[in-house]
């Protein structure tokens, strides 16, 4: 892999992520399974060198970063926080559909929260600061990372709907022949 790349990590499980509740700005800790998954990240990331480590300031991302062994070099960055779900915070998609059957996060955004364009603007700010050389490690959140991947590939923020990142999942945003690619995701 070449210069100016990102390894992105979604925080590990919380009680809300396991139950499918939209968890934007609610600051939850990892649950027991999440802490175990975060510990396995250190093995998965072993042997890699990072020129920067960036982390969302929300507890679940900070805790994942810490358990994985990267907190000493981590810089908290507010633009890495999760999508602001506004009035839909803490609800499942099914509960939202009970109120608004045709709702789609990627198309409609959230009342009192963000839409895809707003999250895309934050992702663009992060991408504008990727180091010219080396790889940065990023600890963030599921929907935000999906938008970040879309923007890395030159897609509209709404196209983040095409990607999924499991809790404690890792993605590599890299280059191949001067083209931005999604190298791996798992």
Describe the structure.
The protein is of the alpha/beta class and 186 residues long. The chain has one domain (5-185): Phosphoglycerate mutase-like (Rossmann fold, 3-Layer(aba) Sandwich). Helices cover 34% and strands 18% of the residues. The chain has helices at 15-19, 32-45, 59-68, 93-99, 105-108, 116-127, 142-152; strands at residues 5-10, 52-55, 74-76, 135-140, 170-176, 179-185. Strand 5 (170-176) and strand 6 (179-185) form a beta hairpin. The two termini are 17 Å apart.
Please summarize what this structure is:
With 186 residues, this protein is of the alpha/beta class. 34% of the residues lie in helices and 18% in strands.
SSE topology sketch:
Layout: E1 5-10, H1 15-19, H2 32-45, E2 52-55, H3 59-68, E3 74-76, H4 93-99, H5 105-108, H6 116-127, E4 135-140, H7 142-152, E5 170-176, E6 179-185
Parallel strand pairs: 1-4, 2-3, 2-4
Antiparallel strand pairs: 1-5, 5-6
Helix pairs in contact: 2-3, 6-7
Short descriptors:
186 residues; alpha/beta; six-stranded mixed sheet; Rossmann fold; single chain; 34% helix; 7 helices; 6 strands
């Amino acid at each position: 892999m070449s210069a100016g790349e990102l390894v992105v990590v979604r925080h590990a499980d919380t009680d809300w992520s396991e139950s499918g509740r939209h968890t934007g700005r609610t600051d939850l800790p990892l649950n027991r399974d999440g802490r175990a998954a975060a510990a396995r990240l250190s093995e998965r990331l072993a042997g890699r060198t990072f020129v920067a480590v960036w982390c969302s300031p929300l507890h679940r991302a900070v805790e994942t970063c810490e358990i994985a062994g990267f907190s000493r070099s981590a810089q908290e960055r507010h633009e890495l926080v999760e999508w602001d779900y506004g009035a839909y915070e803490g609800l499942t998609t099914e509960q939202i559909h009970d109120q608004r059957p045709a709702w789609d996060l990627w198309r409609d955004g959230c009342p009192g929260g963000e839409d895809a364009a707003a999250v895309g603007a934050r992702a663009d700010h992060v991408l504008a600061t990727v180091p010219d050389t080396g790889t940065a490690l990023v600890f963030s959140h599921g929907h935000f990372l999906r938008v970040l991947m879309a923007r890395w590939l030159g897609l509209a923020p709404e196209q983040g709907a095409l990607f999924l990142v499991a809790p404690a999942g890792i993605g590599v945003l890299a280059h191949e022949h001067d083209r931005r690619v999604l190298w791996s995701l798992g």
